[in-house]
């Protein structure tokens, strides 16, 4: 299992990099917009310094047309390094660009996946990661579990090296269901990870153990 953070907020990344077995950081233009004006590629370098060389970073193209996607992808790789994963939406132009970029050795995360068919095409195009949008599918009355299970089955049957990086989560239950469908990775906002530890029963159990040890041993440490 891989757990990734869907943010470019440096303070949040520093905080959760200490807590999580963090496999990577993902971003998109909407997430970048939340941070206001910033030197984007400088921020990517700062993120790399925080998460280390082995974790992955995923950066999305902005262009929608074939030539523009190629240009954006090459620019991202030039500025952020060859180990970057370029996020490309699974559209007709996106798929065409993926084929060319894979021949150039670019690491690709196929994104904006809402259907099984999109995912199947991305697998065949050689995408390293597939990013289906769990909550967005659910909002559109598309069964995200069915899509994820079908893609996981297709990867298994074909022996593909593609991994499913499920995205767009609003709660921990959705994350749990995604992993149950066989996805290899998820990316979520800090709010989802915060919620995972917000259950009062967790804090109460920790407090009870500490109090019992204090009573039994007369100290609050081992």
From TrEMBL:
PROSITE patterns: TRANSALDOLASE_1, TRANSALDOLASE_2
Domain of life assignment: Bacteria
Single annotated GO MF: aldehyde-lyase activity
GO cellular component terms given for this protein: cytoplasm
Location within or outside the cell: Cytoplasm
PANTHER family: TRANSALDOLASE (PTHR10683), TRANSALDOLASE C (PTHR10683:SF28)
The protein, known as: Fructose-6-phosphate aldolase
Species whose genome carries this gene: Streptococcus cuniculi
């Amino acid at each position: 299992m891989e757990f990734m953070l869907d943010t470019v907020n440096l303070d949040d990344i520093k905080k959760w990099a200490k807590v999580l077995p963090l496999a990577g950081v993902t971003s998109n233009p909407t997430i970048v917009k939340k941070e206001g004006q910033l030197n984007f590629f400088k921020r990517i370098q700062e993120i790399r310094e925080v998460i280390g060389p082995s974790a992955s970073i995923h950066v999305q193209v902005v262009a929608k047309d074939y030539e523009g996607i190629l240009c954006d992808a090459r620019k991202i790789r030039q500025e952020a390094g060859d180990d970057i994963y370029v996020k490309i939406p699974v559209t007709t132009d996106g798929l065409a660009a993926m084929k060319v970029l894979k021949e150039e050795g670019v690491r690709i995360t196929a994104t904006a996946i809402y259907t099984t068919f999109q995912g199947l095409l991305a697998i065949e195009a050689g995408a390293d990661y597939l990013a289906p949008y769990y909550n967005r599918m659910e909002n559109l009355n598309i069964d995200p579990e069915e899509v994820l299970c079908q893609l996981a089955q297709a990867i298994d049957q074909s022996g593909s090296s593609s991994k499913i990086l499920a995205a767009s989560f609003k709660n921990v239950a959705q994350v749990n269901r995604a992993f149950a469908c066989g996805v290899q990775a998820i990316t979520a906002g800090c709010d989802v990870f915060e919620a995972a530890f917000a259950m009062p029963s967790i804090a109460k159990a920790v407090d009870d153990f500490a109090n019992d040890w204090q009573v039994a041993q007369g100290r609050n440490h081992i």
